[in-house]
Amino acid sequence: MAEDSPAAASPVSTPAPVTMDTLVSLCKRRGFVFPSSEIYGGLNGFFDYGPLGSELRRNIRNAWWEDMVHRRDDIVGLDASIISHPKVWEASGHVGGFSDPMVDCKESKQRYRADQLFFGAVIVAGEKIGYVSVLEDAGMQKEADEQANDMKRKLAKQGALEPVALQDYTNAKPEEYDLIPSPATGKPGSLTAPRDFNLMFETHVGAMRDESAVAYLRPETAQGMFFNFKNVVDTTRVKLPFGIAQIGRSFRNEITPRNFIFRSREFEQMEMEYFIHPEADWQKEHRDWINWCKNWLISIGLPADKLSEFDHPKAKLAFYSRGTTDIMFNYPFGVQELWGIAARGDYDLQQHIKHSGKALDYFEEATKTRVVPHVIEPAVGVDRIFLAVMCSAYYEDTVEGEKRIVLRLHPRLAPYKVGIFPLVKNKPELLARAEALCAKLKRRWNVFWDVSGAIGRRYRRMDEIGTPFCVTVDFDTIEKDGSVTLRERDSTKQVRLSEAELIKELSRQIDGY
Fold first, then answer.
1. H helices within 30-139, ranges in order?
2. Distances from the Cα of 139 to the Cαs of 40, 327, 386, in angstroms?
């Protein structure tokens, strides 16, 4: 090991859960995510991905596509347009029923989703003394109980205070509207009754601006795989069961975008429709895909203990749904849906058959019969995985008494795979050797060149953006055996390797072979 290189030291981890404020700050400061149109004050619900964020996002997409499509024999890809014929959305039910319940505060003019606004009666010694309201988050029960305690104290009520039984505002009775306070003002009676708000972005196609030109930005990518079902079957050699996968942008005019990129108005989806025979064991197929999705999340670095499952109650399923299970992730703002796996029956294909008048069935050679397949749909948002990955990767370590922020990103996802450092920048032979190595590695991976500052500082900069490996070219490289120092991010351990050994080791760690 070169004398000028810092000695390897094991980091001491600080078990401090990341907060959203910390994560948002890091994303802005290091070029992962920016508020969109920030110089004009931003636009709520829209975000821009910076140099590092665009790389991480691309790597998430590529990893999913490679594992979902390239490494399987039963799934093919599709890339449908963002704007489709408006009858697509009539057939799918989005025009008539794709809405969220909206409620306004008449005093503050703030707008809320009614199913994310919770209220409850304040009961002291069996007597109802008022209501409190809170917005949905991980700490809402505590907040509601604190508000109830404040109300009890202000009204000088004696007796035992019951815990507030929270329910969302869609369950409020008309006679309660005047009693429930607004979260913005605390004033009872300032909230409107819930009303439906369609989430689709409307636009116009062509020169006219009348009803005949109305179209929509797609609210989901799934329908493209349904109305292209016959095209895929006719142009490929797929046989049941098989899947059609797609990655693409979707748009929903969310009433209250929140929690950073978790719920935004423009987002990217990775969806796959897995078509099965109507008589197939759908429960087994559904379970298999739940397991596949969970294992894939673990393979890219999400901790198993932060993942859980939520089975949608039968009473709340859509009439055509056989079952839906969400893989949940423990975000800083609470346990929320990450990946939904739905057994949708044959509803979508049947709807498009009905509205288009075209046959969207599958001819089974073995039985010489035509069937309309049923479907299992694993659907996940790139942005939600991005956020889960960042939350999982964030650590604060102490190395040799110095605090460092380190993103322990899986090498497959890291924006930069390797940092290349010449030990000093005033030695032409050393620089030339480092530049040659950098050019060679660039043919395989995205690498970062850095000659500024002490080696230790350069390591810390790479740690903070998640670069898993750093390579230092030093005097031993050019004066002795040509070996370089490979430093691993998480353990900070360093080893001397020849150039051939280096490439072999990086291939193993980054590409898995």
1. 51-65, 86-92, 94-97
2. 33, 21, 23
pLDDT at 13: 59
Determine the pLDDT at residue 207: 86
CB atoms within 10 A of CB 210: 8
- The DSSP call for residue 155 is T
Residue located via tokens 């056989």? 322
- Distance from C-alpha of 294 to C-alpha of 271, rounded to nearest angstrom: 15
- DSSP class of residue 465 equals T
CA distance 91 to 76: 24
Task: Note whether 429 and 409 are within 8 A (CB).
Answer: no
Rounded CA separation 22/190 (Å) = 34
Judging by beta carbons within 10 Å of its beta carbon (0-12, 13-18, 19+), is residue 24 exposed, middle or buried?
A: middle
pLDDT per position as a tens digit, 283-310: 999 999 999 999 999 999 999 999 999 9
Of the candidates 173, 222, 170, the residue with the CA atom closest to the CA atom of residue 197:
170
**Residue 294 backbone dihedrals phi, psi, to 5 degrees:** -65, -45
**What are the residues whose beta carbons fall under 8 Å from the beta carbon of 500, sequence distance 6 or more?**
none
Please choose, from the candidates 4, 52, 3, 5, the residue with its C-alpha nearest in 3D space to the C-alpha of residue 486. Answer: 5
Q: Is the pTM of this model over 0.85?
A: yes
**Residue stretches of the chain with pLDDT short of 70:** 1-16
Strand-pair partners of 188: 181
Rounded Cα gap, residues 216 and 202, in angstroms: 5
Q: Are 127 and 161 in contact, with CB atoms under 8 Å apart? A: no
